[in-house]
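ingest -> validate -> predict -> emit
validate: passed (alphabet ok, no gaps, 130 aa)
predict: started
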Amino acid sequence: DEAEGRQLVGRWGEEFVYAYLSRKLAQEEDGSRRVVWVNQVEETGFQYDLRIEDGSSGEVEAYVEVKTTLSKDKHFFEMSYLEWAFAQREGERFIIFRVFNAGGDNVELCSISNPFKQWKELNLGMCLSL
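emit:
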């Protein structure tokens, strides 16, 4: 089933980025930040997949949306209206991680900070589909 396949690819990407960010934050000297995978147990329906927060106060520093593809060169992806509105509202605190070659040997990551601002400044394009 195609929807189930997409869901598995998406989950693989979320797990990959979660592990990547967990390693990255563990290397910080003060070790005060942590990454939380909000969909780890089940899909939450939030407009993001991970959040980076202060370990003691719980204050959210960043919301991370993961977009995953099996391809090495598929540069477009879908975002829901709710995700895009959330990205606009959160600004610098919203980051998209694009995962290429999911499940392969040479996985690549690309991050887009503040995608709404990047779009307004013409650094990102937008596709509409019917």
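The chain has a mean pLDDT of 92.
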